[in-house]
Automatic annotation (TrEMBL):
It comes from Pelobates cultripes. Coiled coil: none annotated. Gene3D superfamilies: ATP-grasp fold, B domain. This is Tubulin--tyrosine ligase-like protein 5. It holds the Pfam family TTL. One of its GO terms (cellular component) is ciliary basal body. Residues 1-21 are annotated as: Disordered. The keyword Ligase applies. The keyword Isomerase does not apply. GO terms for molecular function: ATP binding; tubulin binding; tubulin-glutamic acid ligase activity. Belongs to the tubulin--tyrosine ligase family. One of its GO terms (biological process) is microtubule cytoskeleton organization. It comes from the Eukaryota. It catalyses: L-glutamyl-[protein] + L-glutamate + ATP = gamma-L-glutamyl-L-glutamyl-[protein] + ADP + phosphate + H(+).
Length: 240
């Protein structure tokens, strides 16, 4: 049975599925008025069998692009998804890296999902994140963004940074714009004499940060954004 036939299933089957305790659906496969979803179970990670093989039931498939990992493949396979060739256009899920052509996303069908929004990689680059927040600050009010420390992206803003450093001889923190796990972070009091081509974010260091037992800490909120218009955000709730 092809995908188009699946979209034309009788309403009685949809109603039966709706009353199941564990609802699992995929866009384009069933005839609900609300947005259909697939609910992935954590049992897939532990190797236990999942209670509903929704992928096999509706012949769902996925394609792995650049940036795909074994864990994602294992989860999809456990839920009955079949992997297709890299050249195939017949898939339900495309899992790939953030750098995607807009034409690829624009040509997706209603039953196809991708794991990245266009330009979402700007959230992971410190220079682009800061510059976008600065634009919001100008558009709205300074009070809404008073948590942002004074920052400069070098080497492009080297002169501006040197002027700011002369006014305030305090401590500044430097971070590579696309690094992670604390790599390349330094504290300085004097401007660097030489700058390479790589971009580095220089921010005013908070003199009295909040500490736990004398140590700095991270407070992280894990969110999932499924739509921008309208904006739909899911916040992960940590259970103690």
């Amino acid at each position: 049975m092809d995908r188009q036939q699946k979209q034309n299933r009788e309403p009685t089957e949809c109603q039966e599925m709706e009353h199941q305790e564990d609802k699992s659906y995929m866009p384009g496969t069933v005839c609900f008025s609300q947005t259909p979803i697939v609910r992935f179970r954590p049992k897939a990670v532990s190797g236990e069998p999942c209670p509903h093989e929704v992928g096999e039931r509706y012949h769902l498939s996925y394609k792995m692009g650049i940036g795909g990992c074994r864990l994602i493949k294992d989860i999809l396979c456990t839920h009955g998804f079949q992997e297709v060739e890299a050249t195939s256009t017949n898939f339900n899920v495309l899992w790939t890296g953030p750098l995607q052509k807009l034409s690829l996303i624009a040509n997706l069908s209603s039953f196809q999902q991708i794991n990245h929004f266009p330009k979402s990689n700007a959230l992971g680059h410190k220079d682009q994140l800061y510059q976008n927040l600065q634009k919001l600050k100008k558009k709205h009010s300074n009070h809404s963004f008073d948590f942002l420390p004074e920052s400069y992206v070098l080497p492009g803003q080297y002169r501006e940074f040197c002027k700011a450093l002369l006014k305030d001889r305090g401590i500044w923190i430097t971070k590579p714009v696309s690094s992670c796990e604390g790599r390349g972070i330094n504290l300085i009091k004097n401007p660097p004499k030489m700058m390479g081509k790589d971009k580095i974010l220089f921010s005013k260091y908070i003199s009295n940060p909040l500490l736990i037992d004398g140590l700095k800490f991270d407070l992280r909120l894990y969110v999932l954004v499924t739509c921008y218009d309208p904006l739909i955000i899911y916040l992960y709730k940590v259970c103690n």
